[in-house]
């Protein structure tokens, strides 16, 4: 099974990055694209993101070997229904959504009997839209595939090769486990960042101007994540509800324990934790998941 | 009042950065230094951080116009007592600690009748030690001075000029207000980061290896802050207890509200918050407190 024509549905940060990565790394693959927003379609056409910009999802997928749905997880079902009738026999349908059980269910129901293989490239920035994409977004990042139990082996291999071709490292995982892992490595960090930025901007005793002036004390790091796409993240929390609530419970327990340590002046508990977390940073860098330059290499 | 000789007590990230900034931007100012750790003293000497490395804090401050205590806030009192007898008449004593009410009290009690002006440059990285410093750390960052009510105006002006000379923007603030502002812009963000990194590394269902592999989903940002100096941060939480607990209460309330929104499927509440927080990021960048390049300018 060879992938020679890829349809990208949704041309935001992820969709446009796939398009640019294909153009740079696999120029032999033809690309078609669609976005539900006419402004995004027009901008994507100006940027020449895909070989063929289409006015409907059905047109975009008509000759595709692989369709990648790059839309918020809350509209995956609608996006799948919109291509169902036009989808060629044997084409693979995948996605880039951050929750996988809900997407697997939505796609399987909308596209019965098709080669559905949900996927999640763990990569992104805080920017959105067709101008935010860049060809190297997936290089050295993990892409997690969550194939159903009856998945066609050739289709799985073809999709794995596709992501490897974009520079990603590919991992196969059970969808439920994916949702638990990403709840802790991505969803809870985002929820916390959104929360503290909201808390800080609502205070009466401290002005918003002060919060921004002194944000270099740590707060500014959180503002980056909290600038991520609102619709995408709303959908992630609503579609990975159970895992998020489970992990949030653990976080809150641990935070309450630290609160008690602070209140009671228990410096040992604080120091023990802070010394442990330092080691995690070193491992993240050793595993190539972040740069080693201090302060994210910010210019000073 | 002219500052011609500066004593730096404690040669970690902040102390060594002050030394390097002085060497680069004010080479006419003589510097002396001391660190309680003999290894740090030896390394600082190799790096030629100060004009004169001393074997005791008393020797270091003997001829100083300004003494800057760059030690964890929990040992400010001891550091002040150690210089009390040797401190020249009229010298200014300041610091770089992240909590100001506790430091103001400790220094005032240890050095009665002296020119004590607590200060806090809101700048740093996750690194520690004499090798972590760099000359441009304070450029464009705010340095908050919290002078006591009876502060000598000339001394205050001299200290303001000192920090401006290192590239910082100077602000005068009441110590209690400082502690509230920094609780939200720095202390709570650190506490949350330490907590989530601890939570993630203690899970049974998700391995530590998985947490690290998929950390690019957001978690890796938190590991940077959670790699900050354990002793420094233990002392901050113990010494700014009330403001930290107050702000932590606000954060927890807001997090609980979002938890309820997720549980009840209230997408509107989530979206409303996420759309608001995006604007804060823009303001942080507009105010020059972070770079505008996506993903902190990480190379992709």
Structure overview:
The structure is a homodimer of 300-residue chains. The first copy, chain A, is 51% helix and 11% strand. The first copy, chain A, starts with a strand and ends in a 14-residue tail after the last helix. In chain A, β2 (30-34), α2 (38-46) and β3 form a beta-alpha-beta unit. With 300 residues, chain A is an alpha/beta fold. In chain A, strands 3-2-1-4-5-6 form a six-stranded parallel β-sheet, sandwiched between helices. The mean pLDDT of chain A is 97. Chain A has two domains: 5-173, NAD(P)-binding Rossmann-like Domain (Rossmann fold, 3-Layer(aba) Sandwich), CATH 3.40.50; 177-287, 6-phosphogluconate dehydrogenase C-terminal like domain (6-phosphogluconate dehydrogenase C-terminal fold), CATH 1.10.3660. Chain A has helices spanning 13-25, 38-46, 57-61, 76-83, 101-110, 153-165, 175-201, 208-213, 219-225, 230-239, 241-264, 267-286; strands at 5-9, 30-34, 52-53, 66-69, 92-95, 115-116, 119-121, 142-145, 169-172. At the A-B interface, α7, α8, α9, α10 and α11 of A face α7, α8, α9, α10 and α11 of B.
Separation of the first and last Cα atoms of chain A: 50 Å
Strand content of chain A: 5-15%
Helical content band of chain A: 40-55%
Mean pLDDT of chain A: 97
- Overall shape of chain A: it is globular
Question: Which topology of the largest domain in chain A does CATH recognise?
Answer: Rossmann fold
Total E-strand runs of chain A? 9
CATH class of the largest domain in chain A: Alpha Beta
**Number of helical elements of chain A:** 12
Given as residue ranges, the uncertain stretches of chain A (5+ residues, pLDDT < 50) are none
The main pleated sheet of chain A reads as: 6 strands, parallel
């Amino acid at each position: 099974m060879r992938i020679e024509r890829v349809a990208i549905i949704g041309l935001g940060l992820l969709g446009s990055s796939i398009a640019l990565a294909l153009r740079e790394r696999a120029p032999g693959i033809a690309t078609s694209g669609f976005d539900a927003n006419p402004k995004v379609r027009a901008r994507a056409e100006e940027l020449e993101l895909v070989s063929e910009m289409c006015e409907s999802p059905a047109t975009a997928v008509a000759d595709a070997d692989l369709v990648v749905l790059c839309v918020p997880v809350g509209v995956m079902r609608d996006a799948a229904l919109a291509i169902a009738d036009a989808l060629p026999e044997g084409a693979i349908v995948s996605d880039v959504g951050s929750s996988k059980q809900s997407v697997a269910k939505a796609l399987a129901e909308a596209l019965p009997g098709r080669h559905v293989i949900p996927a999640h490239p763990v990569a992104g920035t805080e920017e959105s839209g067709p101008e935010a994409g860049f060809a190297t977004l997936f290089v050295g990042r993990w892409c997690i595939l969550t194939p159903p139990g009856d998945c066609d082996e050739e289709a799985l291999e073809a999709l794995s090769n596709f992501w490897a071709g974009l520079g990603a490292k590919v991992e196969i995982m059970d969808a439920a486990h994916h949702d638990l892992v990403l709840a802790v490595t991505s969803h809870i960090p985002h929820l916390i960042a959104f929360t503290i930025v909201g808390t800080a901007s609502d205070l009466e005793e401290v002005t918003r101007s002060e919060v921004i002036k002194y944000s270099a004390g740590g707060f500014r790091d959180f503002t980056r994540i909290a600038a991520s796409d609102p619709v995408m993240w709303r959908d992630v929390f609503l579609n990975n509800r159970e895992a998020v609530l489970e992990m949030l419970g653990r976080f809150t327990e641990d935070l309450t324990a630290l609160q008690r340590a602070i209140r009671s002046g228990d410096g040992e508990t604080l120091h023990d934790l802070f010394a442990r977390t330092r080691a995690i940073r070193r491992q993240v860098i050793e595993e190539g998941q972040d740069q080693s330059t201090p302060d994210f290499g910010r210019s000073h």
